[in-house]
Design brief:
The complex is a heterodimer. Chain A is mostly beta strands. Helix content of chain A is about 0%, strand content about 55%. In chain A, about 35% of the residues are buried. Classes of the chains: A mainly beta, B mainly beta.
Chain lengths: ~110, ~110
C-alpha cells in the first residue's frame, strides 16, 4: 500500500519558473524524504526532514512538513531543464522502512 | 567508489525460469534493500536486511527470496518467474536503518514472458 501520495501526478513549467509538488501521507512518521529519479535511472536522495522540523532548505530546494495535516511540499525555485525528472516522497515508518509515493513527473521546458 | 552496483542491467526470462539479481555496495553500509518499480508507480519494498545476517520481508515479498551474503552483497532470487514479476528492480543501501538517506543502484529491467 502506498503511504505517500504526490500531487500533481505531472507538472509542466517553463525554465525559470518555480515548481511545487505536494505529498500527503496517512500514518505518523519518523521523517519524510524526497528523491529524484531521472528517466531510466536509480533514485537520488534530495532532502530529509524530520518529524519535529517544519521547513528545510538545500540550495534551490525548500521542503515543508505539516504533521497536523500529514502533508509535505517540495519547492524547486528557478527551475532548469536539468530538473526534468520524477520526484518521489518517502515516509519512514516506525520500523524504519521507507514507503514511497507514486511520484510527480516534472517537465521543465527550455 | 562505485556506490551501489547491480547486475544484470537487463534480463528476459520465460515463465517458470529462475534467476538471481546481484547487488553490491562499497560504502560499508549496514542496511540493504530490494525494491520493485512498476510503470508509473513508486517503489515497493520487497525485502530488506537491516544488518549482516538478518533479512526481513517488506510489502511485496511473495515469489522472492533474498540472501545477505556478507556486508557488501545482497542478492534477490526469483525461483519461478511469473509475468507479474516484470518490473524494474532497484537495490539500495543505507548506513543504518532509520533516519538516513538510501543510496540506489541503477536498476535491473526484468521482463518475464
Amino acid at each position: 500500500s502506498q503511504q505517500g501520495e504526490e500531487d500533481p501526478q505531472a507538472l509542466s513549467i517553463q525554465e525559470g519558473e518555480n515548481a511545487t509538488m505536494n505529498c500527503s501521507y496517512k500514518t505518523s512518521i519518523n521523517n519524510l524524504q524526497w528523491y529524484r529519479q531521472n528517466s531510466g535511472r536509480g533514485l537520488v536522495h534530495l532532502i530529509l526532514i524530520r518529524s519535529n522540523e517544519r521547513e528545510k532548505h538545500s540550495g534551490r530546494l525548500r521542503v515543508t512538513l505539516d504533521t497536523s495535516k500529514k502533508s509535505s511540499s517540495l519547492l524547486i525555485t528557478a527551475s532548469r531543464a536539468a530538473d526534468t525528472a520524477s520526484y518521489f516522497c518517502a515516509t519512514e515508518d516506525s520500523s524504519y522502512k521507507l514507503i514511497f509515493g507514486s511520484g510527480t513527473r516534472l517537465l521543465v521546458r527550455p | 567508489n562505485a556506490g551501489v552496483t547491480q547486475t544484470p542491467k537487463f534480463q528476459v526470462l520465460k515463465t517458470g525460469q529462475s534467476m538471481t539479481l546481484q547487488c553490491a555496495q562499497d560504502m560499508n553500509h549496514n542496511s540493504m534493500y530490494w525494491y520493485r518499480q512498476d510503470p508509473g508507480m513508486g517503489l515497493r519494498l520487497i525485502y530488506y536486511s537491516a544488518s549482516e545476517g538478518t533479512t526481513d520481508k517488506g510489502e511485496v515479498p511473495n515469489g522472492y527470496n533474498v540472501s545477505r551474503l556478507n556486508k557488501r552483497e545482497f542478492s534477490l532470487r526469483l525461483e519461478s518467474a511469473a509475468p507479474s514479476q516484470t518490473s524494474v528492480y532497484f537495490c539500495a543501501s543505507s548506513d543504518t536503518s532509520g533516519g538516513l538517506e538510501q543510496y540506489f543502484g541503477p536498476g535491473t529491467r526484468l521482463t518475464v514472458t
